[in-house]
Amino acid sequence: MNRLSSACPVTLIGGAPVSRADLDQALAVAPVVAAADSGADTALSHGLIPAAVWGDFDSISARARAEIPAENQHPVAEQDSTDFEKCLQRLDAPFVVAVGFSGARQDHFLAALSVIARGIGPPCLLIAGEDVIVRLPSRLRLDLPPATRVSLFPMGPARGTSRGLRWPIGGVEFAPGTRVGTSNQADGAVELTCEGQMLLILPRECLQILTTAL
Fold first, then answer.
1. Separation in Å, CA 162 to CA 9, 43, 143, 176
2. What's its EC (predicted)?
3. In the prediction, which pLDDT does 79 show?
4. By residue range, what is the domain housing residue 62?
């Protein structure tokens, strides 16, 4: 298994559309670049050479294969995991900021959320549209501006407690098909505890607050 070990956080680029704004925001907190399959082409189009590329290599271009050093390319043939999962399984870093995993195929996006919810690899923050999405750890404190949107989406049975939310979550039994926690609001600093698989969704402007808190 060819791994990338980095003392710095890593920006992981996928094959869905990625704007320069997405990359700039990610690279500001995660300066090392890696890619999933055709995300390597996206990296090259922005003048970036990935330190590692993983995937089944069914969509990476011949140009990318030629321009990226061979020692940075790590084909993974098995088909029991997504390219996103293959990458996170092989990354050692304080955290990962993922871009290019939303905005194209929704089945790929849902699969990425499933990987994040299962806690595979380092903590992973996914930038998607207006949001940043992360698995909620067992305990988290966030210094959020008042009125910040805070959404909680369960990926299985989950429960927790809160301080600083407009609508407290204590006593709520969350589950994907019955009860979710979208569009809550912070009164200021928020403290959360969680049991189970829960996604925390915040405005993407909160990325740096999240990386500091994790």
1. 28, 39, 13, 19
2. 2.7.6.2
3. 84
4. 4-129
Task: Give dist(CA 89, CA 118) in Å, integer.
Answer: 12
Helices (H) and strands (E) in the chain, counts: 6, 12
CA 87 – CA 45 distance, rounded (Å): 20
Q: Is the pLDDT of residue 1 over 70?
A: no
Report pLDDT digits (tens) over 48-70: 999 999 999 999 999 999 999 99
Name the domain boundary from 100, 129, 158.
Answer: 129
H/E element holding 25?
A: helix 20-29
CATH number at residue 169: 2.60.120.320
Query: Phi and psi at residue 74, in whole multiples of 5°?
Result: -135, 80
Q: Quick one: 40 and 110 in the same domain?
A: yes
Cα 128 off chain centre by: 9
Q: In the chain, how many domains are there?
A: 2
